[in-house]
Amino acid sequence: AAISACEKGGQWEKALELLRKMQERGVTPNRISFNSAISACEKAGEWEQALVLLDEVQQSSSGPDIISFSAAISACSRSGQSAKALQIFDDMHLSGVEAKTLAGNRTKERGTEGDGFEPDVIYYGAAISACEKGGQWEKALVILDEMRQNQYISLDVTSFNGAMRACIRGGQWARALALLDQIKQEPEVTPDIVSFNTAI
């Protein structure tokens, strides 16, 4: 609870201090503690420290989840480290980490069973944002396509807008306009003012 409070208050150094004190006293931090500390670093732009914590939670008994990876991706993306953000995205795919925290509830609502959940919209959205900032429009389109093929994910306009901006940054105006048309065809997505401003 204390580390979570530090996260919400943007006190990343205090969050790390509390985490280290837990370890010094023989208390093993759980995934929630690590995630709160990673998120605190994300909000403070401390991407290097966020990666250190991601590595620690990967080596811990609890292991990382979708929130761990999403926060680390966002930390790198916000700090202009797009290549590192996308490397984390690829690493999670390879690691086979299951996004039970966010996708699990949606799976239950649809009446399906099993543990093979795919990463949720927050994870993909963070990766698309990294593509946008890094000008990697092709990767952005690949990620967006993965979202569309994933039955456990509800597409959102933010992901489309990010992919559109990535295309524009890469000089792919026609592809950006095509994405705007695709948004209009998605039953669960409605283009917003950002969508139209991006296209203009």
From TrEMBL:
Gene3D superfamilies, per database record: Tetratricopeptide repeat domain
InterPro entries: PPR_rpt, TPR-like_helical_dom_sf
PPR repeat intervals: 1-29, 30-64, 65-99, 120-154
Keyword vocabulary terms for this entry: Repeat
Repeat listed as a keyword: yes
NCBIfam families: PPR
PANTHER family: OS03G0856100 PROTEIN, OS12G0638900 PROTEIN
The protein's name in its UniProt record: Pentacotripeptide-repeat region of PRORP domain-containing protein
Source organism: Octactis speculum
